[in-house]
Model the fold of this input.
Amino acid sequence: MKKLLTLFALLLLTASVVAQQGYEKKVFVSPQGDSLQYRLLRPEGQKSGKKYPLVLFLHGAGERGSDNEKQLTHGGQMFLNPVNREKHPAFVLAPQCPESGYWAYHARPTSFVPAEMPLNEPITPIFKTLKELLDTYLALPEVDKKRVYIIGLSMGGMGTYDMAIRYPEVFAAAVPICGTVNPARLKQAKSVNFRIFHGDADNVVPVEGSREAYKALKQVGAKVEYIEFPGCNHGSWTPAFGTPDFMEWLFKQKK
Done:
């Protein structure tokens, strides 16, 4: 048993190392002196004078910390796939939320039931700093401002909704995975194209969060798709990332 546990730990470490290859370690310091650790993947074969999409990736609560590594545990690998890098060269920003933070909310919401989620929450300090980081990349001439995307899972899925609601003019597409949001907020994000994923057996973030978000976005005329995985618990990011047209759908979205 001990040997099996050691082997499992070694496999996890190996997967983590592989996921991080190609990502630069960075630290952003805001004009106010607030810092945010993040990883950056640049477009493969980047050419001078060419514009590239930008993907902002928000991890879940389990990947919070200060090592500037864990945020690549789920999802970081797919952007390193050589086929994806060749077909969809892009800037990928993967910030890491501090252990004490919760992306879009000042603390973990007491309820994940959609109607009980916060309605008028002021922007959190971590998201204020994140937006300032994002703005530094949006100012670069090599970033295609018509093709800026946000993806997030669980806590990051909640953050994906929040960012799209606060800054709909920035994002061409948003992909919240096993997230939730107060659906009354979503009318602010009707100009963003959404693709929502969730498992119907999720016992951490109720599937109603995505179902209600889908209905609310449809009601306000947004372009939205919803994909639900039967029998899938909270780890719906695995089948979501495995969806055959995940990358194709994302990178064809434009403002």
Q: What stands out?
A: Residues 4-19 have pLDDT under 50 and may be disordered. The CA atoms of residues 200 and 207 lie 6 Å apart. Helices lie at 2-20, 82-87, 125-138, 155-166, 208-219, 237-241, 246-251. The longest strand covers residues 143-153.
